[in-house]
């Protein structure tokens, strides 16, 4: 009897697994088709100088135009990573974003580009060469490109990732730790990789002024970051109180819905200093 029951349970479990596998395979096939049909798009979220509100860079965020709406990355990045499709998708993101930002820079706008990477992209064959080619084909100077990685990518079995990112850094590309404070990267690792930028995770910013521990931690990260000579970017700024506290802490860069939402390339055009009215321009 017990054996019978156990068997049933295995069956139910297997059926559930089966549906899950089918869903993932369908998603993978959809992704493959979408890549061929050019159904991906980029949105750009401005990163601003918190003192002057000047846009210093844009972060490229990939979108999938699917069923009449833009799907956010969390709905498809996992499948893209598992299937390896993140590699061609990431190459498309890299090429498109470099061309867009190079065009904005051609109208004498000193703006940088920040790109998110998955470990699978970095360890793919010819990753360094692919980035070099995107830079030279678009004319974007290496110093205008920041590559964002998360702490997890640098702690375990990360020798190859660190080596490849270091080669790009030697060319002048900047490195950023995204979602900083949520993982296990040590300060020693930040120095070893010669990171240029840390982006404070939104979970810290959300607690500003409401949670003493998070407020204190944010202040500490800003202080230590500056002591190490890093640029500190606060992510997920949604309300004026957070912005005020960050300014008071000496945090110089920020990103978030309060400042600007991710937008299509056309939207970024309107932020170009030459397209702003003289009044806006003095901000
Ligand atoms: P991330 O790099 O940490 O990007 C910031 C995310 O926070 C974006 O979500 C952005 O839309 C959102 N955000 C910005 N300001 C605010 C705010 O004030 N409040 C809140 N609640 N959210 C805000 P998104 O676009 O859904 O991207 C999610 C993640 O997907 C990114 O997190 C990044 O890790 C990944 N990702 C996006 N594009 C790419 C890509 O081209 N390649 C790779 N490998 N990963 C990407
Ligand atoms: Mg990011
Ligand atoms: Mg982040
Ligand atoms: Mg993230």
Distance between the termini: 77 Å
Order of neighbouring strands in the sheet with most strands:
1-2-4-5-6-7-8-9
**Ligand species:** ligand C2E, magnesium ion
Instruction: Using the CA coordinates, give the radius of gyration.
Output: 21 Å
Strand content: 15-25%
What structural category characterises the helix and strand content?
alpha/beta
Overall mean confidence score, pLDDT: 90
Low-confidence stretches: none
Shape: globular
Explain this structure to me?
There is one protein chain. 50% of the residues lie in helices and 19% in strands. It is α/β, with parallel strands linked by helices and 283 residues long. A hairpin with a 2-residue loop joins β2 and β3. It is globular, with a radius of gyration of 21 Å. It starts with a helix and ends with a helix. The mean pLDDT is 90. The structure holds ligand C2E and magnesium ion (3 copies). This is Bifunctional diguanylate cyclase/phosphodiesterase.
Quick summary:
Helices cover 50% and strands 19% of the residues.
Write the topology of this structure.
Layout: H1 2-36, E1 40-49, E2 55-66, E3 69-71, H2 77-83, H3 86-106, E4 112-116, H4 119-123, H5 127-138, E5 145-150, H6 152-155, H7 159-170, E6 174-180, H8 187-193, E7 197-200, H9 202-205, H10 212-227, E8 231-234, H11 240-249, E9 253-254, H12 265-269, H13 278-281
Parallel strand pairs: 2-4, 4-5, 5-6, 6-7, 7-8, 8-9
Antiparallel strand pairs: 1-2, 1-9, 2-3
Helix pairs in contact: 3-5, 5-7
The structure holds ligand C2E and magnesium ion (3 copies).
